[in-house]
Write the structure tokens for this entry.
Amino acid sequence: MPDIDLPRDRLFRATSLSDPIVVVVPDAWSTDPLVQRLADMCSAAIIPHGAFDPSAFGEAHVIACGHVANNAAVARLYNARCCFVDTLFPGRDDYLLRSISDPLGLGHNAVVAGASSEAGLYAATTELINVIDACDGALKRIFKCALARPPKPPEASELDALIDQDLNTWDGGWVASPFRSGKLKQYLWQMYLTDHEAWGTLITAIFAGSIEPWRQQRIREPQEYHDFFGLNLFIHLWDLIEDHPVFDNANRHAVVQMFVEQLRHLAGLFYLHQEINPDGLPRQNHVTFIGLNLAAGHDYLSRRYGVTEFADASRRVERIFAGQALGYKPNDDAGVGYVWAVPRHTLEYLLTRDDYSYLDDGHVADLCRLVAITTDNLRSEVGYGDSSGYAAFETGGWRSHLWPLVASVWHSCDPTHLWLLNWLAQDKLPGLDDAQQSWHASVELTEAGFVVPGVDPEPPDDLLGVTALALPETSRRWVERDAAAEYRPDPAARYFDKLSLRSSFSADDEYLLLEGVGTFCHGHEDTNAVLRLTWLDRAWLADGDYIRAAPKFHNSVTVQRDGVGVLQSPGAGVVIPPLARLTVARQDGDWGFVQSVAAGYNGVDWHRNIIWKKGRYIAVVDELHCREPGEYRCRCLWRVVGDVDASPGQVLLSQAGTQLLLLNADDSMQQIVEDPGGPWGGYPHHDGALHVVHQKQAERLAVGESITFLHLFTPHDGVRIERCHRARMRISDGDETTIVGLDEAGKPGTFAADDDPIPRKVPTEMAAIVATDARHTRPLWQQNLDIDAVGPVTIFDSATDPALLVAGANGDLARLRTADGIPAWHVQLPSPATALLAADIDGDGNPEILVGTSASELIVLDGATGHQRGRRPLKNLNDVPAPVTTLCVADLEGEGSLSLLAGTAGWFVNVFAADTTPKWAQWIRYHVITALQAADVDGDGRAEVIVGNTYSTPLTVHEFDGAFRWSTLEQVGAEGNATTPRRGIGLTQLRLCDLDGDTRQEILYGTEDGWLFAVEPRRGEELWQLNIVGKVVGLERLPSAIVAAGEFGDLYLLGFDGTVQTHKHVGEWIRAAARSGDDIVIATDEGRVLKFGATGVQTGSLQTKGEIRQLHCTERDIFCVLDDHRICLYHFD
């Protein structure tokens, strides 16, 4: 890429005191003697804050004293990202006095004497008077500061190492660079704060040293894209420090060259295309990050250097932000982060153009309502969509969801927003680094909290009770464009974004949050899900996992019809309708009533009804009203927090002495399982694992019939419930008896207590459970190795000496003889094995052992002795060691020599020759790798590398040399970067097999969210798909059919075209499935092992003494690893 030929160098003109100058001050300061002296020294007019017009920047040099809230000139510069002074920065009595060279490109300079307090402002103004007094009639560059805790500059001896550290990030993988992974922005900010030239030395070296790695990266990986989240901040900060004498024109040109090349790349990305982001629709954060970058870049380059090549991109950016400016909600439905980014970008973009419409039109006020509605009574922001863990309220720190409240108070002085800010920001204060984000703070911090003179905080009583935030029209239009025809919004219906129930903001009182949308980028399939329930200063229902998006991962309902999870999809790769209609949302004294409807959910209309008796209980009546006849299996799922004590019709949750009851009054079968995700990260009141309560019902439904779940949450142990109607329950609460449920029109309400209870049926499974032997089957042998826990296990398939390889959690590795289970050898690895593979890699007829470790190493052992033959460290994202997750061996080049491939949790595939000589390492889209195979699937004589991962790009295909070929959809909202539609999340099973008889293999895979896909390998064209609701835990190609096993107890026999030939429900969970000759063997959660033939007929059954953790099979041998770490061998005959 050629260096840019700049039309001109940047000029830094002095401010002549003979030029027109105005001094702008707070209203109360306009007659202050100090200000008068300042004005007299400059022959300047004094303009009070309230009388200032920004047009003055085009007529005179501006000296502005104050901060964003008391000086309109400072506010204009603040909005243009030319200064950062508000009531919280620099804070205390600190000040920052800086000159700004021609800030708005109007030919006049500015000087800001900025401080948060009056004392700081007096000091800054006095310092400015001293500077003027010492000048010779022209003000040159000015920098003076008083900061209580300024950043300490590095020593000269540290500079080279710091420069290398940032430049080395270019090798970190996945668009890593100093602009995303390094400290370059921090150095720019620290130079802005201190003016110390050491920061300048770092800055110029990192910019200059980045040009060539950037160019090489674009050549090496042209298909990858850089978003450069926050490049606009780099540009703004550089613009403000560029006049420092440490920089010469050569330094400046290198920085400009880097910016130009980055901006050219961004301007050429798909995000700005109108067909990707049409007019009038909400935007996703990638596009608004890019928009800010291009807008800032065009403004800077055109004003400073006369570079206008980004003028067209700037016009396209204007169109992008015009779409988001119509509403508060972005195309990002994820709390604790994403949901706040795009609106903030939009406000920033508009304010740089002196456009206050996003504030004036009420969109920021809507965001303030969203802040309150989605924050529970423990002051924790609810995580929904792509978010992780529990965002506990803590003193200190400064969270992103505070910005709408701060900005609204600045612009409108809304007393309820001031109350909410004090509620959420108690004992919090942004640090120096936070000021880069331009918070627009007008609040003063006192012992009483944040105050605004003349404004008394008022609690937002309008947000108590049942509070729904309407879905904006722009979001409805997005769904209209994206969803299948029958799932598009009804113009006459009422749709909502989020809905909360709360009687107060007290941590002891109840709070519930209901989700209204199950779409948008970073959003999950959580339509109609309860996102959070808090009561008694505890959270009882959990949500919030970055990747696990399907309904089964939420406080939701799953619907399987005729064995299938979706027969008429609302959209590519999804099962649940995108929106819930709000048909009831009302309050009546101490009662609240809600009904939200997810219509057309795999053959049913799901009515979620909430009947709330304030302070006493919350009843949930889920009615699944049949629209399409069929055999239905439905689960109502509650992801509960706390120690669990279950009894019939009741789950008691306990957290350190505080309790909540989950009561059930329907005819469902209950099962409680531990969530494999472990504890709820960040939650302070319970460190145990989450549990999922499964209430299961199975019925054959005709049109008009229903399946109904009846639940009630209460902290009061005297509350009792019983069913007294198809969709009603009688609630006994002390001396009070009330019937709640649905009326004849299907609406929630309360009723006279005169119905007799309906006898509770014993739950039964609809399909016949496969036969089993209740007696424990004696294993041929069992081995309990002296290890803490069994890790990965694999079969050592040797014609002369077959064995089982068993790894332990502490680094043990043993080879067990299959004949008797006796260890042939036992070695200690340098770190625990996380992946094992036995393969003959040297062609001598004897398998070697490949070991991937937790320390991110590949170790090759001699199969006969266990002696080490090779050991290599592996590359991972940002060079942070990550465990090996999968291994394979293949002839990549088609020349007869084998390569060793290792996939890691650090997003990389590492490839070595058979003697462990490194060949290549490549990062893979995106997140933890779960499966890896390599074979010549397109017939070109060289292997393709096929990789599965945990993300919404479950499958990625690379060439034999690591070059990218294609991947499945990245995420909703980034369709322009995808080569396929959405195809599941989290690959769990991967097989290569010829499905159409053309001798070339197709790719067959299953996912965590229950999808099965068959695709052709060249470009990923879909051959067929099927959803089975539960995780795909087994997938095998038999000679005449495909066998798939789902975690919820379903076994499928499929034709090679994906048609369901046989579906069996075993009535339990399936933990694992494996091929045994031409049969399929499955392990259930009650220790059963079942064998089925190629036609789906059960041919064998075993009963182990313990839960099965792993299953491994040969044609005859069945190896089970049990929960007590015993390894057992079984035969069916």
